[in-house]
Amino acid sequence: MSAATRTIRLLAKQQPVRFVSFHSAAVRAPIRQHLSRSAAVTTTRDQNRWKPWMLATAATAGMLSWQLGHSLVYSDSPAKPNTVIDKDSKVEFPLYIPSEDGSPARLLGLGVRKITFLKVQVYVVGLYIKASDLDDHNSRFRALPEVQKFQRTDQQSADIAFRAIVQTPIELILRIQPVRNTNGPHLRDGFIRNLTQAAKEQKLSDIENEEAMQGIMELKNLFPKGKINTNQALLFHRTPDGTLTVQLDGEALGSTRNTWVIENVFFGYLQGEHPISEKARDSIAEGIQNLLLQ
Question: H/E/C letters for each residue in the chain?
């Protein structure tokens, strides 16, 4: 009997892996423990450790999870609990990461960023909001009139809601994980281009433009200068007091309080006809729509 056959038979005796759409029923399970830094990052050692299990699961499940349309795929497997898989890149994201006070922030949606003309996948980006803000109907987030009127298929309604969310003093976290090994300057240059273009399109006054350019330079200096591997995560963490901190694997690289830059970092992924990642925007919009159905 081959090793693969023994693995499949062993798995058949265990509780099967469940793949379901990412909605309210999938995320109300109690949090057994706070996620540590190591839980938020998938190491190469862990990938190798579970590779036979993953191959066997794929053989028995027929890779059904990748056929679930735009919905996020939530894995409740014993190997990697509380993990969401981006169906395009197969990059795995933690469902929960720690917020500023240590309480869990929950993934609202994610999607891959591609270089448009080459269709090359660069990274996966996900938006996290504190679980308490998502679940409490009286929270600042849920109480926003723009959120209550949110219509996923109406771009104008969605843009108004996204602007209200970003401009409300709640905790927001963008998590970026490369699809292939990259480096800080490469990611930095993409951010700077997008922000510079946004400043031009918004037709800012001289004073506003000067403030924007100053903020862009502040953000430029916060990016790591070395390599960023596929098992690492770059976080843009906006706290309710209006500070944006850039982190790499839990280590703070610096922060800015430039309001224009902070808002436009998030607007770039959420607003307009051509967001930085349409997949991420659609997924986040679906996450909000699902919340409203609770």
Answer: CCHHHHHHHHHHCCCCCCEEECCHHHHCCCCCCCCCHHHHCCCHHHHHHHHHHHHHHHHHHCCHHHHCCCCCEEECCCCCCCEEECCCCCCEEECEEECCCCCEEEEEEEEEEEECCCCEEEEEEEEEEEHHHHHCCCCHHHHCHHHHCCCCCCHHHHHHHHHHHHHCCCCEEEEEEECCCEEHHHHHHHHHHHHHHHHHHCCCCHHHHHHHHHHHHHHHCCCCCCEECCCCCEEEEECCCCCEEEEECCEEEEEECCHHHHHHHHHHHHCCCCCCCHHHHHHHHHHHHHHHCC
Residue 148, Cβ density class (10 Å: 0-12 exposed, 13-18 middle, ≥19 buried): exposed
Q: For 78-124, what is each residue's pLDDT tens digit? A: 557 789 999 999 999 999 999 999 999 999 999 999 987 778 999 99
SS (H, E, C) 177-222: EECCCEEHHHHHHHHHHHHHHHHHHCCCCHHHHHHHHHHHHHHHCC
CA angle 37, 23, 39 (to 5 degrees): 10
Q: Which residue shows structure tokens 């699902």?
A: 290
Total residues found in the chain within this entry:
294
Q: What is the pTM of this model?
A: 0.75
The CA angle 28-125-191, to the nearest 5 degrees, is 145
